[in-house]
Amino acid sequence: MILLGLNIDHAATLRQARYRQAGATHGGNVEPDPVTLAFLCEKAGADGITVHLREDRRHIQDEDISRLAATKSTRLNLEMACTPAMTELALKLKPHSVCLVPESREEITTEGGLDVVKHRDKVARVTDAMNAAGIKTSLFIDPDADQIKMSVDLQAPWVELHTGAYANAYHGSGRAAEFARLVAGARQAHAAGLVVN
Description:
Blueprint lengths: L4 E3 L1 H10 L15 H10 L4 E5 L9 H10 L4 E5 L3 H10 L3 E4 L19 H13 L3 E6 L3 H9 L4 E4 L2 H6 L5 H17 L3 E2 L1
């Protein structure tokens, strides 16, 4: 069954740019409000809401996450780095699911998949903690055979395949090859019993 999950990070990006000088309270009446947007998305038929609480808090803020988690009607998917602080927050708020992503303060947006082979131990600690708490875990990975095999070993029930290389090649000669890479990755993941986002 296909479900529609909407990422509302960019509403928070606009809010943060608009209220940059207003301090933590954003000046009172904030627009756009990501939590209001989440409600409207669900009312319009979205099955869930995705937010990325970055370590530098450049868009989504802790208050946004707390408000979203408190609504309980939202199927909240929290994208997060594999850090002790983010793990602690996720275990406290208990979102419907988490997606473990790489994070670099220098990037504007996530630029590649999480290398679960290289960071196996760190990813395993977070995945084990989420599984024990009943929080579904997905791994944001490149469509690479070794990354998919390791995702199975880490007992993450879902993977999300990074499509950046395909998007970057879309108008070039590498488009077909990158698309084939995504298809092969999705097939391998499905054959291994993983759900693919």
